[in-house]
Design goal:
Elements: H1 16-19, H2 70-78, H3 93-98, H4 185-193, H5 204-215, E1 224-229, H6 237-252, E2 256-260, H7 268-271, H8 282-287, H9 289-292, E3 307-308, E4 315-317, H10 331-344, E5 347-351, H11 359-367, E6 370-376, H12 379-394, H13 398-402, E7 405-409, H14 417-430, E8 433-437, H15 441-444, H16 456-484
Parallel strand pairs: 1-5, 1-6, 2-4, 2-5, 6-7, 7-8
Antiparallel strand pairs: 3-4
């Protein structure tokens, strides 16, 4: 197919309704004459200019059209231009051109032989080759109709919404750390005195304590063992063991034991409460250990060998303080004791001695899920704590050293601020968390550490330390569970 329009800017000058049966003023009378070459298309369905003139796919600048069978209706609109079924009978094209002002050619794609007709062309009885006019695009190809594809599959119906579950009727069991009015200080007093009409928000310190209470209650998939280490004596290992065991027991509901694993004589026995005057030690339990290694052993049978700590909700297993006893707990004894205690307690906090080369010290560290490094605000104590981390790293326990928690305790009420800052920076870089415990006269006196008699800020500090320990244990537990899959 070839098609070219004239170089005119005005729209097509007729429409099918206006031009049906038009008679040329210069040609013969063609009124009422229409081509009947294709009666089914005698009624022209397209107005001139067609809709979208000039758009892609339609005639005009940049447009292509598939005229097809529309040629029959177009002939009727142009009048009687001759019998187009006969190539020799072409009628008076000049008259038709004069009837259309500005029209310099007619579409001839359905009139063989195909050619372009214009006012400056040859005699109307002849033909010209199909070539574009100056400044006009070349012949337009006849587009082919797209092949009809299979019908589109109907869209799948949307799934129905899930039915509500019974648990949706319950209150959400989510810890709301930021909800609720302040309970501490003047903010808490204002909230209580106003009967809840005035509710000042809690301070950042109170919110941090609420978050620590949430963290310390996280659960594990198995019993966990925490070992408190520091090669230097008098650095606060035993108070840290009691403080952590108290925080874990008070906030997790018991099943916690603090165990003095000193190879000779420890001080846990003199730092825990003992209202009943119990005299049993770890050596007594070790002598009765076969009873607890049986499958029918009961947790109540352990009561004779441990010292309950009241509201702190943990038990204490103390070491022997008999001056005449020269025996030591070895690696095998530790392994058997630890295996039994794991059956009856969920968290085990172990106080160690000062000799890192002792078999029971090594056995405790090997059984640890987490180590807690203790230091006071003194350079030599901090140095000893950092050294023991090197020892763990050099003996193939680098993971235990990196995941350790550091607890800094104040042996006096006014620690040196420069030393304090250096210790915090040093152990922050070496361990997973650093927690500070303020000075408390009850701890400094060296007597029994009753949880209920500690200052509120001291209890909160031990709770924060317990939360840091549980967070590190939870990360270790998650890693181990994934590794077992």
């Amino acid at each position: 197919m070839t098609y070219e329009d004239s170089d005119v800017s005005s729209p097509w000058p007729w429409s099918p309704e206006a031009s049906a049966g038009t008679t040329s003023s210069a040609g013969p009378d063609t009124s009422g004459v229409a081509s009947t070459a294709n009666p089914s298309t005698a009624q022209d369905r397209h107005a001139y200019p067609p809709p979208g003139w000039g758009e892609p796919g339609l005639p005009g600048p940049g447009g292509v059209v598939d005229w097809g069978d529309r040629d029959h209706g177009d002939r009727a609109n142009r009048g009687n231009l001759g019998n187009h079924s006969d190539p020799g009978d072409r009628g008076d094209f000049a008259a038709a051109e004069r009837a259309v002002p500005g029209w310099s050619g007619v579409r001839t794609d359905a009139i063989p032989p195909t050619g372009l007709r214009g006012s400056d062309g040859p005699d109307r009885g002849g033909t010209v080759a199909s070539k574009p006019m100056a400044g006009q695009p070349g012949p337009y190809p006849r587009p082919r109709a797209a092949a009809a594809g299979p019908p589109a599959a109907p869209a799948a119906p949307a799934p129905p919404p899930p039915l509500p579950r019974p648990e949706a009727l319950l209150l959400p069991d989510e810890p709301a750390v930021s909800r609720g009015p302040a309970r501490w200080g003047w903010r808490g007093r204002v909230s209580r005195l106003s009967g809840g009409l005035i509710t000042p928000p809690p301070t950042a310190e109170e919110l941090a304590h609420r978050q620590a209470l949430v963290d310390i209650r996280r659960t594990f998939s198995r019993p966990m063992t925490v070992v408190v280490i520091q090669p230097k004596g008098g650095a606060g290992k035993t108070p840290t063991t009691i403080g952590l065991a108290s925080a874990l027991g008070a906030h997790r509901g018991g099943y916690v034991i603090g165990w003095d694993d000193n190879e000779t004589r420890g001080t846990l026995a003199v730092r825990v409460t003992n209202p009943s005057g119990q005299k049993s030690t770890v050596w007594d339990l070790l002598g009765s250990l076969p009873t607890f290694e049986r499958t029918d052993a009961r947790v109540g049978d352990l009561s004779h060998f441990v010292r309950p700590q009241g509201e702190a909700q943990f038990d204490a297993l103390v070491s022997d303080d008999n001056p005449a006893n020269m025996a030591q707990i070895g690696e095998e004894e530790f392994r058997r004791l630890h295996s039994v205690l794991q059956r009856f307690y969920r968290q085990i906090v172990i106080d160690t001695g000062n000799n890192v080369r002792s078999p029971n010290w090594q056995a405790a560290v090997n059984a640890a899920d987490l180590v807690v490094v203790v230091s006071t605000y003194q350079r030599d104590v901090g140095y000893s704590g950092s050294w023991v981390l090197d020892h763990l790293t050099e003996t193939g326990r680098e993971r235990l050293a990196r995941g350790a928690v550091t607890v800094l305790t104040a042996a006096d009420p006014t620690p040196d601020p420069r030393v304090r800052a250096e210790l915090i920076d040093h152990f922050t870089a070496r361990t997973s968390a650093v927690v500070e415990v303020p000075y408390d006269p009850l701890i400094a006196l060296g007597g029994p550490m009753d949880w209920t008699r500690l200052r509120p800020q001291t209890q909160r500090a031990w709770t924060a330390a317990g939360a840091a320990v549980v967070t590190a244990l939870a990360a270790r537990d998650e890693h181990d569970r994934l590794a077992r899959r």
